[in-house]
């Protein structure tokens, strides 16, 4: 893209700057539209599973319901509690929303179609996603209310607990791909299953790690059945209790952007990313970004399906699953995968 702007007469520095801004907009604007539409899809899936209609009034088939809700919160007044720390209270949702967008910089949408093709892309995603906890903890503390503070402490413990097992799962993927670069990880999955299947999910050593990663990604994004941070029967609305209007909407948008990110990571790390599911020539006629989009929608359907059907865990069950099941399991598979690769790949 930089070369394109240079061909229009710009010098290299300005061309690089314009290309970077254009790349950011090409990711951020469709992502915001996608977030609005998956909120609608989420509600329709819940409604179908509960034998209800769901949104069906605003626009054809209710497609404009999310935009109507966005306009509603935009026109509302932002209320800041008198006892709150105003500066931190207002900056907390901005941190959460910004961090949710930043992680998309290294997600490859096609071969080479990535904003920042860095060699440590997977480490970047892990680092950026862990920063989201600051927006939640700051919101709980700055509200100067006990229920948001309790929720923030829950969220901190929950996210840290499941990031540990996620880290070990990612080590298994990195060992197989021999790289932290997400483009290289996707290419390493080409024909991985008997020369026919594109993806690590076919591998008997990595399939259990995908299951651990899928469940841990639900816990990391505080989706049901792990939505203990927003348990309305105990904590009202959790760390969002004191928020209204656009500050509340930023949390809402950030949450769904994180859900989409986790769906994209599931597709990229285990299901071949932009590659078609099978290594068959005519399947490559479909653009890679379409395959990635289909896989993201598949995983989002799983997220919604679980939320509509599985009851909420108790907090002790949540911690037990993370520390007593997933941590030993993922650590054991790091040993198994590294031992298997030493035996087969390096003799």
Name the descriptors:
single chain, 347 residues, mainly alpha, 12 helices, 66% helix, globular
Give me the secondary-structure topology.
Blueprint: H1 2-7, H2 12-49, H3 65-75, H4 86-102, H5 121-142, H6 146-177, H7 182-187, H8 207-220, H9 232-235, H10 245-270, H11 288-309, H12 315-344
Helix pairs in contact: 2-10, 2-11, 3-10, 4-5, 4-10, 5-6, 6-8, 6-12, 8-10, 10-11
Supply the number of structural domains.
1
The major β-sheet equals: none
Kindly state the percentage of residues in helix: 55-70%
What shape does the CA trace take? globular
| Intertermini distance | 44 Å
> What does the radius of gyration come to?
21 Å
Let me know the average pLDDT.
87
In DSSP terms, counting alpha (H) and pi (I) runs of 4 or more, how many helices?
12
Structural account:
This protein is mainly α. The chain has one domain (76-344). Helices cover 66% and strands 0% of the residues. It has helices spanning 2-7, 12-49, 65-75, 86-102, 121-142, 146-177, 182-187, 207-220, 232-235, 245-270, 288-309, 315-344. The relative contact order is 0.13.
């Amino acid at each position: 893209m930089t070369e394109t702007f240079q061909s229009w007469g710009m010098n290299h520095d300005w061309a690089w700057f314009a290309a970077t801004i254009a790349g950011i907009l090409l990711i951020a604007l469709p992502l915001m539209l996608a977030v609005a539409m998956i909120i609608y899809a989420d509600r329709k899936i819940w409604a179908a599973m509960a034998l209800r209609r769901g949104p069906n009034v605003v626009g054809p088939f209710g497609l404009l319901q999310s935009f109507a809700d966005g306009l509603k919160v935009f026109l509302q007044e932002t209320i800041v509690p008198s006892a709150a720390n105003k500066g931190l209270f207002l900056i907390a949702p901005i941190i959460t929303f910004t961090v949710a967008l930043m992680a998309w910089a290294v997600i490859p949408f096609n071969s080479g179609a990535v904003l920042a093709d860095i060699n440590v892309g997977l480490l970047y995603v892990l680092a950026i996603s862990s920063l989201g906890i600051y927006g939640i903890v700051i919101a709980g503390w700055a509200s100067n209310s006990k229920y948001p503070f309790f929720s923030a402490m829950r969220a901190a413990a929950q996210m840290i607990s499941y990031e540990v097992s996620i880290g070990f799962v990612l080590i298994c993927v990195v060992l197989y791909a021999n790289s932290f670069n997400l483009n290289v990880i996707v290419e390493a999955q080409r024909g991985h299953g008997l020369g026919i299947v594109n993806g690590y999910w076919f591998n008997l050593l990595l399939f259990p790690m995908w299951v651990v990663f899928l469940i841990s990604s639900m816990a990391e994004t505080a989706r049901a059945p792990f939505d203990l941070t927003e348990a309305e029967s105990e904590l009202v609305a959790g760390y969002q209790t004191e928020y209204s209007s656009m500050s509340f909407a930023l949390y809402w948008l950030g949450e769904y952007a994180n859900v989409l990110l986790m769906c994209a990571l599931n597709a990229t790390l285990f299901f071949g990313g932009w590659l078609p599911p099978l290594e068959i020539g005519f399947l490559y006629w479909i653009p890679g970004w379409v395959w990635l989009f289909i896989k993201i929608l598949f995983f989002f359907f799983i997220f919604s399906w679980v939320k509509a059907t599985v009851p909420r865990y108790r907090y002790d069950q949540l911690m037990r699953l993370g520390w007593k099941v997933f941590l030993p399991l993922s650590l054991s598979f790091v040993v198994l995968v590294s031992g298997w690769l030493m035996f087969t790949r390096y003799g």
